[in-house]
Amino acid sequence: MATKHEQILLFIESLKVGNKISVRQIAKELNVSEGTAYRAIKQAENQGLVSTIERVGTIRIEQKKKENFEHLTFAEIVGIVDGQVLGGREGLHKTLHKFVIGAMKLEAMMRYTEKDSLLIVGNRVEAHELAINEGAAVLITGGFDTEDHVKRLADEKQLPIISTSYDTFTVAAMINRAIYDQLIKKEIVLVGDIFTTYDDTYFVSGKDVLDKWYQLNEHTKHSRYPVVDEQNKVIGIVTSKDVIGKNRNITIDRVMTKNPMTVLEETSLAYAAHMMVWEGIEIMPVVDNHNKLVGLISRQDVLKALQHVQRQPQVGETIDDIVTNRLSVVSDDPHDMILRSEVTPQMTNALGTLSNGVLVSFISEAGSRLIRQLKKSDIVVENISTYFIKPVQLDHKLDIRPRLLEIGRKSAKIDIEVFNEKDIVGKAILIAQLIDRY
């Protein structure tokens, strides 16, 4: 039976997009406490089912699919520009497909303004009205208001009119930045993108006898299975190590490894890979927010997926991408490797010198490239001890020299020195675990 929390989430999910909800309303309709209703609404907001807007309230919005991440809802625009909704609140859940800056004559402006777009314009009431009639929302910059008849038209058409105190250029830059951030998020692979779903997952119950493990092992040739209770919650993992030599008639909950590590569908694949390598885990159950089994990931599948991602072109570059892509190879000899980069404005701190974060990115990338040359392996960094010896100015050139200190079957220790001209400006010791490339 579903918990009260789960019932509230299912109720919210069943609401029509655009519906307004409140803690008091949920508490009254579902006969739960206001505290329970509040926590469920907050989780619904985290899952992208609702959006809370100041002076408007909480509304049901369309949950985004991953391929639709580059499109923002008008509700998100309100939050981005710290805006005030003047009219058309019922349309806040809608998605905009492009925005138009109204810094032109009215006729030219209307040629570019179309349905589901957003017109960014100043104190031009006629443009506000024409845009609404064309099926576009309006974002008024400079903190201006609009006429009452335009607000009534916006309510009728369910198209938001939003006012912000920022100027047109700043608003366009903020929306552009938000879209770009969404694109970077879209490229981050999550566990939910690659896991084996519940219907294809083999698992056992804690009350099953060990003979069930032998039956599954013969059928699947696998040796590790999640263990669940009566509510389908994950309570353990059972492996060949747990069952060998034990009586086949005892129950699995007596021999399993309890409280296993689990991940959510929303967990990043990189985090899951790091935990599996760090802990030496071969499989990890995928659970929902109530620890109920929804699927499974294996270490091999995770690593293959990560290596596939590394070969894909990125739509949005992160700071790490920008930094490491500027590294050029002076020498690729693993016994005398030299990587070079110029210090650009993006790499500096407020004082105009190379930032700590960028230095760590250079060190990690240098260690990774050295191991790829030596063993054709990837690495998961365990620890970096970094020393800044001298500040490095903008436009100066850096030479990064990684040297192998120790290497084993599963780990490596690397010494990395950073030079500006002939002066040493930084030094690090990097310890990492090795991952075979499949």
TrEMBL record:
Keywords: CBS domain. It holds the Pfam family DRTGG. Residues 190-254, 256-314 form the CBS domain. PROSITE patterns: CBS. InterPro entries: CBS_dom, CBS_dom_sf, Diverse_CBS-Domain, DRTGG, HotDog_dom_sf, Ser_kin/Pase_Hpr-like_N_sf, Thioestr_dom, WH-like_DNA-bd_sf. The keyword Transferase does not apply. The keyword Protease does not apply. It comes from the Bacteria. PANTHER family: CBS DOMAIN-CONTAINING PROTEIN, CBS DOMAIN-CONTAINING PROTEIN CBSX3, MITOCHONDRIAL. This is Putative transcriptional regulator. It comes from Paraliobacillus ryukyuensis.
